[in-house]
Target: T-box domain-containing protein
Amino acid sequence: MNIPMRDPVIPGTSMAYHPFLPHRAPDFAMSAVLGHQPPFFPALALPPNGAAALSLPGALAKPIMDQLVGAAETAIPFSSLGHQAAAHLRPLKTLEPEEEVEDDPKVHLEAKELWEQFHKRGTEMVITKSGRRMFPPFKVRCTGLDKKAKYILLMDIVAADDCRYKFHNSRWMVAGKADPEMPKRMYIHPDSPATGEQWMSKVVTFHKLKLTNNISDKHGFTILNSMHKYQPRFHIVRANDILKLPYSTFRTYVFPETEFIAVTAYQNDK
Model:
């Protein structure tokens, strides 16, 4: 099955939907995504014959960690992962298996009314060379998690379409074909992994995720093109170790009202 990278945003959706398999179960295997589209983890792109390449611990070398960005304003240095360091020296069988649990995660967008007000006018997010935080900030509340199981929460931001835009006559309009995109980075929430009980006890915020237009960024910021439209995505992974991410099932949630156009300066004076 060929899974497209960019699916249409469904307007008027009150809750997040799952963009990859909208008519099937809400989970999808990471290996499926890696095999059919530009990978979240470029170092782990699969060969045409499937997931065999992921069976070797050696596949978990430094490049994958460069894609898993923590809350600090720099990418997680491979050597600073503490007990998770030296993945290539650590056999996967030493990672404890997850217990079978029953959960039904649901995600609710905080400040939904504010996002909707921005969305009606065409949300703009300022990007800078030095990196700038999102406004409105991306915050969610999770329910339906297993209290004792551990989860990793992540975000990424992907292109919403293949167009470049311009602000003309007080409105946004298509101005041509999109510029090539830089490989997208997954931003891991700094509290990951944590128990379902811990996640559900608070609002989950990604206020330290920063947007930049610096294609040479070394800080782990999300690199975007100005005057292009993007869609933030939120992911829940039930796993007790970050090294399990490439082998895990991702539950993905997308809120259409959080779509935005990246700009270097606000265009709409409203």
